[in-house]
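Supplementary notes for students who missed Thursday's class. We covered one full example, reproduced here. Read the sequence, then the structure, then the short commentary at the end.
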Amino acid sequence: MTALADNGIVHLTASRSVDEVLEHLLSILRATKLVIFGNPKAGTPVMIAAPDSALDLPLKILIAEDPSGSTRVSYNSVGYLQARFGLTPEVVTNVAAIEQIAAALVR
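Structure (token representation):
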């Protein structure tokens, strides 16, 4: 495992092919959906300001069943993205809509 302390990215090397790893992952997951969405007009300025932010963009919302059977909606907080990539308040507003979207999902 390789982890870079400054950005939290972990790289693991698998002994299986990509297709085999994907098949294995799908066989062990509970009910899970990852929705990827974005707007180039909003995301591009963020990626120009911090190219590594492309790892977290487009935005993603994870909808998953937890072990107790409850449905959980998860996403990277805007504050986390701002701190992780050193984004200015002006730039981070481009991705702030994820908070309202996630809140609307659980209402």
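Commentary. The chain has one domain: 31-106. The CA atoms of residues 16 and 24 lie 10 Å apart. If anything here is unclear, bring it to office hours.
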